[in-house]
Amino acid sequence: QYIRLFEIDDIKLEISNEVLNYIVSKAIDLKLGARGLRSICEAILTDAMFEAPSLEINSLKIDLPYAEGKFSKSKVSKLKVA
Question: What pLDDT does residue 82 have?
């Protein structure tokens, strides 16, 4: 879904396998399930979705340090199912 959203702005989004594994592990650790996966993705990609089009770039690669930084600053990182 996010790859397609970036394509609308003619930006090729690449997400490393490390980041995908990180997202899945966070969802498992926090016991958030499928909706948690979406929330984690939003926490990592929302800023890029709004900033990238104005930077006039044609590709964006999300790496692990970027993902960890964005996630750690989000409220999602503090969630946990009871």
Answer: 47
Q: Model's pTM, two decimal places? A: 0.84
Question: What distance in Å separates the CA atoms of residue 57 and residue 61, rounded to the nearest whole number?
Answer: 11
Q: Point out which residues pair with 61 in neighbouring strands.
A: 14
Tell me the DSSP string of 7-75.
HHTT-EEEE-HHHHHHHHHHHHHTT-HHHHHHHHHHHHHHHHHHHHHHHT-SEEEE-HHHHHHHHHTSG
* CA separation for the pair 2, 17 (Å, rounded): 15
Q: Which amino acid is at 11?
A: I
